[in-house]
Amino acid sequence: MNIEPIINYFSNILPLKREEIDALKKVFKERRIKRRQIILQEGDICMLNTFVVEGCFRMYFVNENGKEHNIQFAVENWWIGDIGSFHSEEPSKLYIEAIENSVILQIKKQDQLDLFVNYPKFNRIFRVFTENALVSYQKRVLQNISSTAEERYLDFMNRYPYFSNRISNVQIASFLGVTPEFLSTIRKKIAKS
């Protein structure tokens, strides 16, 4: 099992001691996930926090008409999970699916809580990561209510240029809240200017 990516991730926030690294090795489990494999589905309780080592994932909601709405993408060194279900232990309304063959590291909720108690540094690290995620979600909500679809697309491409080769236009359109056809129109307009 290659735990080095998660050690590097945590160490970039706060340097780790040997005993903290050893604790990580005991609680994180590596999984290899195939493209299109679901690691969380609606109705399940999210019992694992997931760190992406290799690959790409999407988290999405399916409405009553069967339409998918992408909420989040995650690539290397990103976390993905239904944080509401993870903390409340209530059934999730979301799906998490691999867009590519992937390698992930997962930690159980109780193991994460034990890390917080036994190694307080991890409590601080997870707080920083959670606060950053909250800021990102707030920016996205504000952008969705105050920006045009073209502005949202341009911002998405500026912030995440590496997604354009890994995520289909249909997936990007769903994330932006537009139809694939409308996204195509936006892309053609931008290409002409």
Automatic annotation (TrEMBL):
Pfam families: cNMP_binding. CDD domains: CAP_ED (cd00038). Residues 31-117 form the Cyclic nucleotide-binding domain. It comes from the Bacteria. This is Cyclic nucleotide-binding protein. The lineage of its organism: Bacteria, Pseudomonadati, Bacteroidota, Flavobacteriia, Flavobacteriales.
